[in-house]
Design a protein that fits this description.
InterPro entries: DUF7793. The chain has 137 residues and is an alpha/beta fold. It is 39% helix and 26% strand. The protein has one domain: Transcription Regulator spoIIAA, CATH 3.30.750. 26% of the residues are buried.
């Protein structure tokens, strides 16, 4: 698939797919850090505002690492909720069991903020994302 690079925050590179889905790839998996989490959500917000629509996010979650208490608390925070209007849905793709456990945690704490779903295959994830109705930001 032909991808257009939109930018990079820490080890995460953001690509725009032809179907409008934003695909993130982490180049150097490392423990999730709060400052990078916030920077990534700010970047997502910026993209959504520029595109004038909430984003469909496709994330390869297979290389993800552990989260500390501060990062888990952030996912439940009011600040995190403030990013919800900018994200239509997030599809986490991972064949890895440990990453799937982390993904299930992310879904459990972030489910009230926006649509988050875990997939084993990218095709299924993209299909789900494209079924979500568009929303103007």
């Amino acid at each position: 698939m032909n991808l257009k690079e939109l930018g990079q925050v820490g080890p995460t590179i953001y690509y725009l797919r032809k179907d409008g889905v934003i695909h993130t790839v982490t180049t150097n998996p490392q423990p999730i850090q709060l400052d990078l989490m916030i920077a990534n959500f700010e970047f997502i917000k910026t993209i959504a505002i520029e595109r004038k629509q909430a984003l469909r996010m496709l994330t390869d979650f297979s290389g993800s690492q552990k989260m500390g208490k501060a990062e888990r608390d952030f996912l439940k925070s009011e600040q995190m909720k403030s990013y919800a209007p900018y994200i239509l849905g997030t599809a986490l793709v991972t064949p890895n069991f440990l990453s799937r456990m982390i993904g299930n945690f992310v879904m459990s704490v972030g489910a009230n903020n926006h649509n988050v779903k875990l997939f084993g295959q990218e095709e299924q994830a993209v299909h789900w994302l494209l079924q979500l109705p568009s929303r103007i930001v």
